Structure formats: C-alpha cells, structure tokens
Amino acid sequence: MTQQLKIDGIDVFIEGEGAETIVMLHGWPDTYRVWDGAVAALKDKYRCVRFTLPGFDISQPRKMYSLDATLRILLHIVNTVSPKQKVILMLHDWGCVFGYQFYMRHKGQVSSIIGVDIGDAVSEETQRTYSFTARMMVGWYQGTLAMAWKIGGPVGNAMTRMVANVLKAPSPREYISCKMNFPYYIKWVGDEGSYASMLPFEPQCPMLYIYGLRKPFMFHSPQWTEKLAAQRGSKVVAMRSDHWPMLRKADEFNQVVRSWLEGTVTKTEEGDVEAA
Predict the structure, then answer these.
(1) What's residue 275's pLDDT?
(2) How many C-beta atoms lie closer than 10 Å to residue 204's C-beta?
(3) Which of 47, 83, 256, 269 is most exposed, with minimal Cβ within 10 Å?
(4) Do residues 48 and 15 make contact, with C-beta atoms less than 8 angstroms apart?
(5) How far apart are CA 89 and CA 95, in angstroms?
(6) Residue pLDDT, tens place only, 65-84
C-alpha cells in the first residue's frame, strides 16, 4: 500500500512498513520512478520514501530552486516522514549533490548513506583525472542543458531529450523536459547563488558507494574511494554498468544494498555504528 503526502507542493510517496526509513533522491533526467525496482526489493523491511525533486516534475510550473531552497524542502520532508528517527539516504546523480549537502548540514538526522555513481565529483582530485576529451564531453552536455533551460519551451525540451538520447539515459522520455535542467544553468551562469555555499562532502557515517565502470570518465577520484573503503562500516562496489547501475544491474544492485543494510552495518546499544 502506498501512502501519498503533499509537502511544500511536492508529491511524496511512502511504501513499506519497516522500522527504518530510506529517503531516495534521484538525479537528471529522472523522477521518483527511477527507484521502482529498489522500492520493490526493500519495502518488505524498510519504509521507502521517494519523490520527484523540486523543479524536476514536468507537470509543475518551470521554476529554479537554489541550493538553500532545495535543502529546506528536503529538511521539511525528512522531518515529516521521520520526525523521531534518523533516515538512510539513497542518492543518485544530482540527488547525491543535494543529499550530500543535506547530510553535511543535518548530520544528526542521517544514519547512513547509499551513494550511486557520484563521489567527490567537483574535487580537484577528480578534475585532474579527466582527459581533454572528457572535459569536452562534460562541457558539451552540461552547457547544452543549461542553454536548453534558458531557451525553454518545445525547443528546450527537444534539446534536453536529445542530450538524454546521446547519453543513453533510461528515463521515459515523456517525463523529461528542460525544466529539470536548472541545476546546470545555476552551475554555469551563477544564478541563485551558483551553489557557492556547497560544503566539501566528508561522510562520517557508514556509506555504501556503488558506481558503474562502463563510462568514459568517473565522477570520483581514486583517493576518495580508497579513503571511503577504509572507513569503518563503509563499502565501495564497482559494477559493470553505466551511470545507472540501479537499472542496468537491478538484481545485483538491490542485493548489494540489502546485504549492506542488513549485514555490513549494525547498530550498537549505545547508538554507534560499527562493522559487523
């Protein structure tokens, strides 16, 4: 049975009756639907909470959300769905960006993190791993999406779906529009604060990081994954997929997530977290 709430104008879907709550954040060019398989695999033991990110819903008016505005909405949702207990964050792509920033500002409300394919993407260490070709690819797709946001309308939508096709994004095209490109516009143009207030992501809670190997470049540095893998209770898993391992390798992905949640990390009586 699915419970549906309306929080700050966002449709929030809750499935499952478990004691722990997993809040799932998607990225570009996806919606809450990208987590369908994960919810089906986890809802027998966990409360799965998901929603389409502010500004990403094709059915809603075109609107740009600053980092602070996005985090305020996330905080309201987390406080509403789990007012007395920490939540587990499951994050992908821009969902990682927003989820990591939420954690850095509200560590007391997060028990653990599952990050998918985005690590220290903006760090100097990661940037140094990019070849000239990789830099050109990043500049092309991000610049095109930023331009599509500015243009808007049918032309902006067509540009956005063209990029989605080139990148082989699996999201259904009927839910993709230029409305969801505003984070790229903010990043490139510097509007709405330009994400200048972002904090370096330094996870101090247990974290599972899953990434795809079949990409022209990575969104993390080797130093970051090595440090994370050495952290107590954390784990790094590489899969033979592209940017969407939760869809391309769904069974393997869900098995790894469930195994890590149930076996790798245990909570002590004092509330600390340690490796099992």
Answers:
(1) 33
(2) 11
(3) 269
(4) yes
(5) 10
(6) 999 999 999 999 999 999 99
Rounded to whole angstroms, the Cα distance separating 132 from 191 reads 27
Q: Which two tokens stand for residue 196?
A: 């200048």
Q: Is the peptide bond before 172 cis (omega within 30 degrees of 0)?
A: no
Interatomic CA distance for residues 218 and 150, integer angstroms? 28
Residue keyed to tokens 């080797």:
222
pLDDT band at 194 (very low <50, low <70, confident <90, very high): confident
| Pairwise CA distance, residues 91 & 27, whole Å | 8
Could you give the CA distance from residue 261 to residue 46 in angstroms, rounded to a whole number?
10
Distance between CA atoms of 35 and 195, rounded to whole angstroms? 26
153 Rama sector, left if φ>0, alpha if ψ -120 to 50, beta otherwise: left
What is the SS3 string spanning the chain? Answer: CEEEEEECCEEEEEECCCCEEEEEECCCCCCHHHHHHHHHHHCCCEEEEEECCCCCCCCCCCCCCCHHHHHHHHHHHHHHHCCCCCEEEEEECHHHHHHHHHHHHCHHHEEEEEEECCCCCCCHHHHHCCCHHHHHHHHHHHHHHHHHHHHCHHHHHHHHHHHHHHCCCCCCHHHCCHHHHHHHHHHHHCHHHCCCCCCCCCCCCCEEEEEECCCCCCCCCHHHHHHHHCCCCCEEEEECCCCCHHHHCHHHHHHHHHHHHHHHEEECCCCCEEEC
Q: Does the predicted TM-score (pTM) go above 0.90?
A: yes
Other C-beta atoms within 10 Å of 43: how many? Answer: 18
pLDDT at 264 (0 to 100): 54
Instruction: For residue 272, give both structure tokens.
Output: 């600390």
Regarding the domain with residue range 2-129+197-275, which homologous superfamily does it belong to in the CATH classification?
A: Alpha/Beta hydrolase fold, catalytic domain (3.40.50.1820)
